[in-house]
């Protein structure tokens, strides 16, 4: 009985990573929106700025970005661990490499925050560029991840 429970957990654990990543993808797009709104607020004229500042886009973007960084790193490690537990190996391919790249890019992007707070425009443009790449790569990951989920479902049935 214990073996059956462990086997069941092992099999169904494979769906935790994709579910988390889809949630994180949605939150990433929302963080993009918040970042764009903060940039709009920063560059607005006095009247519009007065209207936008109470919406606190800056802090919401910063807090969501921090959450995304932590969950992305943990989610990617968990995905690799679950793959290894279920298969005895990692599958070296584009999904793994792009996932690792996204993890590195989000860490570098977040590390630019102190420079951006000091008004460094190069850091801001780098942050925007990295995050644009992250959203694009993450979209591709969502599609390639669903192909992997389909293979897992085919294997289970």
**Secondary-structure element pattern, one letter each:** HHHHHHH
Shape: elongated
% residues in beta strands: under 5%
Give the class from helix and strand content and strand pairing: mainly alpha
CA-based gyration radius: 19 Å
Q: Spans of 5+ residues with little confidence (pLDDT < 50)?
A: none
pLDDT averaged over residues: 94
Largest sheet: none
**How many beta-strand runs?**
0
Helical proportion, percent range:
over 70%
The end-to-end span amounts to 21 Å
If helices are DSSP runs of H or I spanning 4 or more residues, what is the number of helices? Answer: 7
Describe the structure.
By secondary structure, the protein is mainly α. 87% of the residues lie in helices and 0% in strands. The protein has 7 helices and no strands. It has helices spanning 2-12, 16-43, 46-52, 57-87, 94-111, 113-117, 121-156. It is elongated, with a radius of gyration of 19 Å. The model has no long low-confidence stretch (mean pLDDT 94).
Give the structure's gist in a few sentences.
The protein is mainly alpha-helical and 157 residues long.
Features:
mainly alpha; 0% strand; 87% helix; 157 residues; elongated
Task: Write the topology of this structure.
Elements: H1 2-12, H2 16-43, H3 46-52, H4 57-87, H5 94-111, H6 113-117, H7 121-156
Helix pairs in contact: 2-4, 2-7, 4-5, 5-7
């Amino acid at each position: 009985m214990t073996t059956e429970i462990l086997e069941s957990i092992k099999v169904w654990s494979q769906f935790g990573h994709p579910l988390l990543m889809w949630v994180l993808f949605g939150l990433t797009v929302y963080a993009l929106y918040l970042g764009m709104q903060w940039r709009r607020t920063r560059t607005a004229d006095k009247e519009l700025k007065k209207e936008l500042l109470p919406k606190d886009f800056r802090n919401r973007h910063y807090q969501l970005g921090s959450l995304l960084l932590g969950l992305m790193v943990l989610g990617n490690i968990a995905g690799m661990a679950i793959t290894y537990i279920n298969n005895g190996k990692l599958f070296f391919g584009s999904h793994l490499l792009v996932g690792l790249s996204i993890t590195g890019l989000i860490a570098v992007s977040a590390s630019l925050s102190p420079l951006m707070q000091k008004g460094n425009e190069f850091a801001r443009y780098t942050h925007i560029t990295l995050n644009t790449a992250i959203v694009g790569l993450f979209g591709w990951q969502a599609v390639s991840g669903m192909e992997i989920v389909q293979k897992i479902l085919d294997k289970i049935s």
